[in-house]
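> tool_call: predict_assembly(chains=two)
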Amino acid sequence: MGIISALFVIFLTVTGLMLNHTEPLNLKKRFVQNIIFLDLYDIKPGKEPQGFLAANHWITQVGERIYFDQKELTEGVNKLVGVVAADEKIIVAYDGQMLLLTQQGEVVEHLAGTEGVPAGMRAIGITQNNDVVIRGAHGDYLADIESLQWKEEEQIDAEWSKTRTVPKALLANLLYLYRGKGLPLERVILDMHSGRFLGGFGIYLVDAAAALFLLLSLSGVWMWFKRS
Amino acid sequence: MNMKYNRWICIPLLWIAAGISTNSLAKGVYQEPQEFIHEVFAGNPPPASRLWIRKDLEQEINTILGHDLGVLRLHYWARDGRTAWILEEIGKERPITTGVVVNQGRIELVRILIFRESRGWEVRYPFFTDQFNDAGLVSEHKLDKSIDGISGATLSVNAVTKLARLALLLHGYIENGEDKS
């Protein structure tokens, strides 16, 4: 009983110390890469990845993140609306915002409502004259990204950006990248410390260990009193 | 049930409810960035200008933020020696969107526009943001006045302070015409 208790004490002490120093150990920003753990925690995107092809580059939304080929561009994204290529730039439209990229995937700038991006952006497209078009909540807009002019017009005829089937190999890599940033080490250590890692049974196991410590403490004190 | 027991149950429940509601009110959009720009320029904002982040400026930005901005150019709004900036910096895990107005090299206004973190939202209150008013930059891009922190919100305080310093740096860069040199 003493050995089992000792093992529990060591385990709980080590995990407790780690949790007490989350910041210096950077536990929130270190991620578990082990596939078994990732499967156990069911780390996966909440919805099907959506991919767009522009200037021979794949821009894909996986979960709340957007990737340029395999490079993460931004996170916290609700919906990737579309992607177009114009004037040697790639324009990524999402959540009422736009990212202007070089063809190497560098972010030139971020555009939002303050820069005049039309509200309720539902689609992005390109006209035959290579002009960028935004379909907003209140109509279509001809966009001049360089001068930040958004000219409202009736129903603009354009080739609207559409999702495509992302190549399997790329999708597998993106899912691997996504999952690799989905499970912070802090969460696993916290679950191990509380016993939740083993589900409902684990909590009772840690409860049993705590009861064991209590029993050992009380019996130790009792024995010490008896001897003295 | 006895009144004495009611009190023991009700007080903690109210405490928990108040805590939950405070937390849910803490996160969110306090003011849309475009509304901020409109307000700052009395409903008639100038068109957005662009600042290219050149290598020399990038290095200075790095000394303030500890990382680069992640963009090659930034937007700002300028009129009559005043510039307005919408800047973001991560407090603990998520970016804090902050509006900063600089007038003749001194901060005129700092306002938290969007707060996404679960802690540290106290930085939104004027008792904190008003401390930046009239601050300028001294050597090593430090503020020329001290900013009192908020216990439990250290990372948010640091993030907002960095953004205030950054806005002053960018304003100075434009004021000195270095963006055109």
